[in-house]
Amino acid sequence: MEFLRKEFGERFIEDGVTARLYVRDASFMEFSESIAGVVFPVDEEEVVKLVRWAARNKVPLFPQGSATSLSGNASATAKGVVVSFEKMDKVEVDPVDGVAVVGPGVRLEELNVELARYGLFFPVDPGSVKSATVGGAIANGAGGMRGAKYGTMKDWVLGLRVVTGRGDLLRVGCRTYKCRNGYDLVRLFVGSEGTLGLVTEAILKLAPVPESAVAVLAYYDDLETLVEDVVRVRAGRLWPLFAEFLDAPTSAVVGLESRNALFLGVDVNGGAEERALRRLESLVRGEVAQRALDWGNAMKLLEPRRRLFYGQISTAQRDGGVLVIEDVAVPISKLPEAVRGLKKLAERHGLPLLLGGHIGDGNLHPATWYRRGEGPGRVEKFLRDMAELVVKLNGTVSAEHGIGVLKKDLIKMELGEEALNYMRELKRVFDPYNILNPGKIL
Amino acid sequence: MEFLRKEFGERFIEDGVTARLYVRDASFMEFSESIAGVVFPVDEEEVVKLVRWAARNKVPLFPQGSATSLSGNASATAKGVVVSFEKMDKVEVDPVDGVAVVGPGVRLEELNVELARYGLFFPVDPGSVKSATVGGAIANGAGGMRGAKYGTMKDWVLGLRVVTGRGDLLRVGCRTYKCRNGYDLVRLFVGSEGTLGLVTEAILKLAPVPESAVAVLAYYDDLETLVEDVVRVRAGRLWPLFAEFLDAPTSAVVGLESRNALFLGVDVNGGAEERALRRLESLVRGEVAQRALDWGNAMKLLEPRRRLFYGQISTAQRDGGVLVIEDVAVPISKLPEAVRGLKKLAERHGLPLLLGGHIGDGNLHPATWYRRGEGPGRVEKFLRDMAELVVKLNGTVSAEHGIGVLKKDLIKMELGEEALNYMRELKRVFDPYNILNPGKIL
């Protein structure tokens, strides 16, 4: 650690109490009792030096943004060094090129405040958008509310500067929207959870803020009609900006009526609001309880949905429980079957269940909890059954939260050993000493 | 070859005259005098058997769709076997899930005909869209006219079934829009030009056909204003569906006035056309010569731009020349400088130059030619200078045509040896015997 003391001075924290704050992430689980310290690099050169030192000395490095991961992606798993990127927070917006060049420590929300000056925005909108950093969102391949229309991080990162586990600085991708310079390494790093390289700079693609939007909040007695309506809207050539749902008990938790709720928004041209809302209402067969006719009100209409996470946490806490939030996706046609199946499984395991998610892209976030005294055993069995159900329905056990530590067993059920073996070989190419976020994904 | 005769029967062609038709692609270059034959698999099982046989016997396999590559990606480079995917042309559309599951041999145009029944489309629109196949578009990471808004193939492939050079069948990605099941191997295969694996099935993401569109064709005396206007439109919160340009001599070649021409289209909601066109005209400072107020007419307005390739070919042929079409991109802010620089370089080398491209994403297709008797020497020098200019301007030597055989030197100038070495190691992971499309990219 002498090297870190000398090289980083006050930007290396060894004090156990402070360092302990960096051990775990929002998954609330602890995988290592302690770490050797936290280091706060300020530039790329320092990151290169750090990784080369770690490679020589076989010291595990745990990259961290704001540690909002729910799968343990940002937790330390051994007595290594946490690398906090909070000081690398450069933002350069180029409205002509339509890109932002940013440091990994920039928060998505801060970026969007800056972009608003140019009529631009960065569309990826995870639940943690207020605190999540660009580096964390890249590592995690973050998704969120606008996934059905705008996709996820993989669709918005054009280029990266990244330090591999061998200490090589690679510049991959382009500053231009189109880029075909060899293998697409950008997208190999996006979603790799910091296990292949540490991102020191990202070139992000930007979008113009839509001129306007319309939205409805509608209640449904049966889920099939709710799902069908999302499909009807798309077939009616309106492409939902968001299509979010909460089941009846979850709607009640966030302050709505205790019925299945659909939040459906469409971005439109200025002046086209009234006609678009009429079309939307003609396609939606639920009971429309709220309407929005501009961008601001459409975002406001969505607010109860944004309270889902807090609603889930507080409900679990009131019940003296430890919350476990899952993140699965199934093809949209299988959503009703998935919801019915999940409810049946929760019942069979005697577990509570709150259900909501991004219905426009088939992404569900089932939440359950266990009492502290009882331990997670029953929940773990439920999760394995859930994974089995989801894989059977042609879905995935991880839509946007990543694998981290917590879902390593589940991903095996989905992918099988052969695909994982190729991933292990890729890991060896970029990180032969296994120093970058070890214990994650594989 | 006994294995191929036995296994594929009449679907293995050894006859030299017929086989010769499959040696080269639309780059018009020949890198091998002959091949051992062409094989036409009909299903995945046959592809697996073929690759395992090739791996055991170290026989090079050259995958081919409709061979529209302009960089030699689809040409044979040795006396191996061309694998034509034309018989694997399954199309299954699921409008509820918003995906199509297709064989590699399906043509993009055919796919869109099928999708139109559901109000959906596949937005990637390369110049070769009428003949290009899904497999070829994936291998090549195809782009095209709608890149500035809809991106390229990498943004529209959700999942793949693919046979690696070891003969392993991998299922990568998902059928859902969000997918975080480990490393993003889908996007490693997209744009890898068939050098890492042979795609046997693809799950494609679909978009609703926009309700309507407006467009203008405007002429400009200076290029700076033309480029600025594209940026003004985006800053005005209209996101161009297409933004295409032709320089003055090229405009004349496709039948327009001999002035810089800008084709600018924006998709809009039904009913919003007139207001959107007024806004568009208020932002565009060139001389508006044509207007379109619906989707059909907007596509029609773009037609002269679609004649670019044929205009370039016939102009070169009239001049007794062999056409060379390039494919570079620079950040949009650097477009005027790039255009000026390219014109200067062409002049210095005494070469003709026709310039057009996708200005919305900074992608230029400079075309030049050499006389048959003269040989390509002068053009090659021009291309190296072009690459130097583009790299200096923070651009890329390959925006959407890929590397193939022809741009291997240029990509070295852009990426350097270190990044290429990582790519070589990735190649070894997936194709240790170097049997998949050898001689391409690396």
From TrEMBL, chains A, B:
Ranges for domain FAD-binding PCMH-type: 31-209
Q: Which is an annotated Pfam family here? A: FAD-oxidase_C
Biological processes per GO annotation:
lactate catabolic process
| UniProt cofactor(s) | FAD
- Write out the entry's keywords from A to Z: FAD, Flavoprotein, Oxidoreductase, Transit peptide
EC numbers listed for it are 1.1.2.4
Q: Which domain of life is it from?
A: Archaea
The protein's matches in PROSITE patterns, at most eight in alphabetical order, are given as: FAD_PCMH
What is the enzyme's class at the highest EC level? oxidoreductase
Which InterPro entries does the annotation name?
FAD-bd_oxidored_4_C, FAD-bd_PCMH, FAD-bd_PCMH-like_sf, FAD-bd_PCMH_sub2, FAD-linked_Oxase-like_C, Oxid_FAD_bind_N, Vanillyl_alc_oxidase_C-sub2
Tell me the protein family, please: Belongs to the FAD-binding oxidoreductase/transferase type 4 family.
Question: GO MF annotations for this entry?
Answer: D-lactate dehydrogenase (cytochrome) activity; D-lactate dehydrogenase (NAD+) activity; FAD binding
What is the protein's name according to its record? Answer: D-lactate dehydrogenase (cytochrome)
